[in-house]
Amino acid sequence: MSDLKLGKKIKLQTLLKTMRLPFLTLTLSCIFLAIATAINQGEDINVVDAGLCFLAALCAHISVNTLNEYQDFKSGLDFNTQKTPFSGGSGALVEYPCLAPMVNKAFYFSITITVLIGLFLVFKHGWTLLLIGNLGLIIIIFYTSVF
Question: Rounded to whole angstroms, how far apart are CA atoms 42 and 17?
Fold first, then answer.
């Protein structure tokens, strides 16, 4: 079935499945914990910067999930893996293979948002953030193929 014949609801459901939404709570928990720790240590929290960190972290997590789904589908791994709740992917692209390009675009969109926020924070707070950001990008890009 072609992408054009699928309804918006199926496209959205497929995209959300490949983002692996239930696992994004880990990202939110980590960022909340970091902010709570900073507050506990008496640091002033810039609400805008904290919000941008939340958004960048969510987009980074969505990036790694969508890229993993796309690469596992393209390599054929999704067709040979027994799914469990924690491994084997969402199965969304096996069900709707014509939506693989859409998921790949979601990866590029989310990684772009991550990079743009990261660069903004680097310019605002210093180049040392670039080291952490670059490490994060390397992990996202090579998560499936190397790690």
Answer: 39
